[in-house]
Structure formats: C-alpha cells, structure tokens
Amino acid sequence: MTTTDTLDPLVWDPYVRDCPTRALLDRIGDRWTVLVIGALADGPQRFSQIARRVDGVSQKMLTQTLRALEADGLVTRTQYPEIPPRVEYELTAVGHTLRDPLRALEEWAVTHMPAVLAARAARG
Amino acid sequence: MTTTDTLDPLVWDPYVRDCPTRALLDRIGDRWTVLVIGALADGPQRFSQIARRVDGVSQKMLTQTLRALEADGLVTRTQYPEIPPRVEYELTAVGHTLRDPLRALEEWAVTHMPAVLAARAARG
Prior knowledge:
2 copies of one chain form a homodimer.
Chain A: H1 20-29, H2 31-39, H3 47-53, H4 59-71, E1 75-80, E2 86-91, H5 93-97, H6 99-122
Antiparallel strand pairs in A: 1-2
InterPro entries (chains A, B): ArsR-like_HTH, HTH_HxlR, WH-like_DNA-bd_sf, WH_DNA-bd_sf
Keywords (chains A, B): DNA-binding, Transcription, Transcription regulation
Pfam family, one (chains A, B): HxlR
C-alpha cells in the first residue's frame, strides 16, 4: 500500500493524491488523445490527415494534443527535408501499447451509447 | 461510414464531429470517473468511503462525478430509511461493463509512468 507520505516511484497508484499517474490518466483519457492515437494506429500521418480523420478538431487543439503526446514519448514528429517540407507523426513503441486500452474505451462508448441515452431520457 | 450529414444513431462513431460518443468518451476517460468506478468495483460504498479511497478528491468533485454517473445510468444511489439515513452508491450492470476498460487504462498509466517520465526528462 502507498500513501501520500510514502510515495514510492516504484509503486505508482492513481488512488494516491499526488501520484503523477493521476495526471497521466487525464492525459490518456482525454477525448482528443483517444482519437489521435486511434488515427495514428495504422501508421504515420501528416497533420492534415489526422485533422481530417478526427473530424472537427481545431488546429490549436490538435497541435496541443500532438505536442503533449510528443513530450510524453508516445508520438514522434519527423520532418523530412523536402520542398515543401513534409512532417509526419507516428506512434512510438510505447504509444502503440496505448492503442488497445483506448480502442476498448472507444468500443465501450459506441456499444453503450444507446443505454446511456436511454438512462438520460428516463430521468427526463 | 458515417459523416456529420448522415449521423445514424445505429452507427455511433466518435471520429464524427457531433457524435455524442465523443462527449461520452470525455466523461468515461475523466480521472475521477476512472477512480470512482474503480472504488465501486468491489461493491456498494458510502460517499465517505469513496472519498477515502479516492484520496484527495474534493466533496464538490465527487458529488459532481457521482451525479453524472447516476444520470448516465452507470451508478445507482440508494437511500436506506435508517437514522441517521444511510446512502450507498453502487455500479449498475452497465456501470460494471466499464470496469475492465478503465482498469486497463489505470494499469497502463501505472506500467508506463516510468517511460513517460523518462521521455519528459530527456526533453529537459
């Protein structure tokens, strides 16, 4: 067991107040992270391709999401020295490990949307 | 394939701009949802028990999270006619189906926290 007093980097626990896994949960559970990681699942993509796949994402939000994923080592950004320069985003090995859990979330949302809407409607 | 123009309630798709699964993803990926559903995994709990398990959650945030989960039909709130009144929160059948995907997220965060911290440190 961990407590806030004995936070041990080897015993991460998001139930503990200051554990950094809690902020990481926010990051990976974010709707844009889920969709961007999903968009990158099949291979490297340019910014414009991701933006098309994640319908309606703003340029600002997509930039912010990709930068955060880069900072966390989940996505790489590669600039190819061409004219005009080509920039591609790609999941890292660690980023790939996130694909299955996030796909499960996506599938849960799609499968249970009717039940959730029914529950909301029942409450009026 | 769905598009925003042909949004079909039978074909939910969070990659489509106005699909309600996108907002549902936000809800279920939220750190407090993940931890509260986790806290309720082993059976009904009182507010104070959940608050203790989810170390550091504010009363306001916990109330808000539980109400949202209730509204979506994922958690029930039962008040027992005792003195003092006892109130318990419990996962519904649908709420239980969310447990595995959210546990996978939790486990991902715990497992990959070191890699993410190393990536952040490497960028200085």
